[in-house]
Structures
1.
Amino acid sequence: MANVPTDLMDQIRRFEEMFTLEIPKCKEITERFESELTKGLSKEGGTIPMNPTWVVGYPTGDEQGTYLAIDMGGTNLRVCEVELGQERGSFDITQSKYLLPEEVKTGSAEQLFDFLADCVKQFLVSNHEDQDLEELSDLHLGFTFSYPCEQHAIDHGILQRWTKGFDIAGVEGQDVVPMFEEALERKGVPIKIAALINDTTGTLIASAYTDPRTRIGCIFGTGCNAAYMEEAQYIPKLEHMNLPPDFPIAINCEWGAFDGEHKVLPRTPYDIIIDKESPRPGQQTFEKMVAGLYLGEIFRLALVDLVKNQPVKFLEGQDISALEKPYEFDSSVLSEIESDPNENLWEAGEYMKKKLKINANEAERKLIRRLAELIGTRAARLAACGVAAICNKKGYKSCHVGADGSLFNKYPGFPERNAQALREILDWPSSVKEDPIQVVTAEDGSGVGAALIAALTLKRIRKGIHQGVSVSRKNSLIPPVGEGNH
């Protein structure tokens, strides 16, 4: 921080105090996290939903066939056709990506699902030019719907609440599968939905398909979440089903909801503003401090606060109107600023001119860079608290954690900061040559994972195992009791 004036250094120290998570605080958060994971599985429930997904086991490696997968994320819609190969971990994938229009995110339910169905139809027409759509009715679809859902069956899901900036009336509290199927029918697409999954569950299964050491799947991207396999004996809220004690069920934690009571997470004034001004105040507290959707907004609010409210000479006399537009920047802005290797941060300065519309001197650039680093590091360390909590709960001493999402894959230093926090929280000695628990790049959970879960579901149906698969929903894959092969 050479050549940084005292007043700016004071602000840097203020930010460091706000955003730095020391080891004792990380351990306190992890302990609270573990107790909330357990509470979410109880009959009373808790802040973290801990939703059973009815994905009931890892892939064996002999799954085969061709499946469709559709991934409805926070920014894009992706349609995939996945052919599972004969060797474990092998697959071919064809895919197309479609930008989710902003008006769809806040429009009507019919508008949303018609858009999804249109994209599926366009994909099938483009990739099966020599076939009529009716000839594709044997294709089964894994629908990746990465929003909190209560699932009583693998092909059924009631939306609990919108996240990631979506706010569509008439969907919360409703089963999203019939809505999508009706749209497919309206568009003349004869495809059956085999499974409704969360991208985190898909990440768990896809990673386990290629790497049997995988025990947890995580998403660190626009949103953040985790999934892991739990035994029925540790899920009191499913006691009424009289499942075998060792019956495995993948749990979609929906851990973005952690600490909704604001007991342990050290929120800054900027975190509080984001929560108050969000479509769902008081919800998704953890996600609003970790997920890529919010990191740029935390950064923006801090910079505006510096200019307008702090006793400091910062961007004096400059037009900061670009900085005053909410959600104008995402985590890629912090990533770009952190990526500049130059001592004077010249490249970052040019980027700031282009993206932030500001002309920062060297000292100001160093403050801005440090702020980005602090926000990104806090996100990585908080993410490690969640991973450590699951490992502690399950007694995992050695495993792989499959992680996907733009933060993990593209943000410089995120994996390393996350790994360092895990070492500190779990008290591994410095003499350990290789971390016993490693967070590694995941396979494509929303594509390959969705296809695998569709394949696993069909395999269970063919064996006559209907536990966790609906038998009464319209267009269900399973014939009514008394028909077909049971």
2.
Amino acid sequence: MTHCKPKINTYFALSLVVIILIGGLIYILHEFTNTRAFGLFFYLISAPLITVVTLMLLVKMMAGFKFISFGKEKIVTKYPLRGKTNLYNIEEILAWEEEKIIANKKEFRQITVAFSDKSSFTMSNHEHINYDEFVKYITKKAPKKKVKS
């Protein structure tokens, strides 16, 4: 079986951004308690805004942390943070779709696969290794299930 796992570089960069945001939030709260160099309105807007952005980024990282294995007419999805593993046969695929977006002269590709038990997963070429092999595999094994756009 071939494995698609998260790219370490992507999660390292996102973790650095989260650390910087948390550092900025700590600085703003420390600044508010000690010197109050800015107006109250600045603190009331910036602290919740940084908190929301940090939480959204953390949720995105946690939801996207999955391992996908494929081969032998099966697809296995593992979500270690949820403690959940699903095993699907190729026949259980209801539909799949690949989206392509070109931004800053780079191609961003994302595939979404929906299964008969009403679950689905999304995987992108920037966040997972062996993305191209998975697309070739699913194109070969389930070509009629592709969503026509």
